[in-house]
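User: Fold this; tokens only.

Assistant: Input:
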Amino acid sequence: MHEAARKAFIAALVVVAVVVAAFALWELRLVIALLFLAFTVAAAMRPGVEALRRRRIPRGVGIGIHYIALAGIVGLLLWFVIPSAIDQIDEAVPTSEAELEREAAASTGVRERALREVQQRLEELPSAEELIDPAVEITVTAFEIAIGIIFTLACAAYWIFERDRAQGLVLSLVPQRHRRVVGETWNLIDLKLGAYVRGQLLLVLLVATVLSVAFWIIGLPFWLLIGAFAGVVEVIPVIGPIVAGALAVAVGLTVSWQTALAAGVIVTVVRLIEDYTVIPRVLGHAVGLTPLTVLVAVSAVAFLFGGFAVLLAIPLAAVLATLVDVIVRNRDPAAEDVPTVIFPARESETTEVR
């Protein structure tokens, strides 16, 4: 009886500990998501940092160079996009209710309905007093986003310094016969995440540039905004390109059905070229996931964790797929191919697996 009671008590403690741990992880899911994002960013930067280190540039300076370059690219894009976007909005959107009424009266079809809808929304705008609380909420949200970005970038920088030490500690806790496989699996996951992020950034720039130019050629309103939006939503698998295409067609309908058709054809052609030519050459199927797996992963992550976590759906699915390949299918992680995206695939891995 005493032994049975002791076992029951231990089992109850284990169950309670598991429930508490699961609850704690759920409550900390945002922090965990930011940490995973930081590890992914670090995986993308590490080859460049190590390449600079081989040229006797310290890691800290190399990380700073990457962050300065990123800030410079973002600032350059904003400097180029924002003035043009403001000009497009000023030209396309009436600046007063009277002008809006004249535009709506002179328009027909989809454009008329859109302008009437805009006019109705303008009439329903809240007063200045009613805007105070939303303004405060927006300010708080913007501050939280800024803190999240700073936290992610800081963790990414620290992880580049501490990653080899952490890997060595984990491997020291693994039985000797499994150390090589565990270490190579760790390296493979790191390589896949880095290749995916760098390739995705290249795709964002490429798609935004090509679509913006194409939309400008066919005379699509807001061509720069829609092209930039289409490039940014490339980071959202499956859903992003569909939303961008639908938006381009909807805006094209405000001009004519021919413009809408041309916008739809352009988005479709660019997407097909991207899927069958660009992605195989740039990413080389870095994460090794089928389209169905990507769709299921995106849907599941969005349902469980919300919209922000969709950005991490493919990296997370890639980690799980790699673990399944190694643990269940007994694949050798050292023999797996990882595509070269800007940097050689395995050149940056310096940790010795013993």
